[in-house]
Amino acid sequence: MIRALTTRVGVRALDKTPMGEIQPRLQLTFTCTVPDCGTRSTHEFSKHSYTKGVVLVACPGCKNRHLIADNLGWFTESADEPRTIEDIVRAKNGKVRVGSVYSDGRGGETIEIEEGDK
Question: Where is the DNL-type domain (predicted)?
């Protein structure tokens, strides 16, 4: 007796979860403003966390944590407070420049921040 072998294969919607998609990343270089520290460091994080979530980075010098983005309102008292480091610097009359870096041929975003009035 010969039986036919059948297999059910679940098909997922490819448009919802693309395979091999590269998630955009951001890189931030800054100088720690904690008194007696002044360590300059570079940190990398996902663009999604910067625009939709919370980003904290630790200074390798003093181990202080710096808030880079708070889109969930975890560290703010009101909805009117700045949500990203760009907003915070602009609120203190600092300068922010956003550009692109092409190190791997694909490109990425870079944020340059110049401190303003304290």
Answer: 23-118
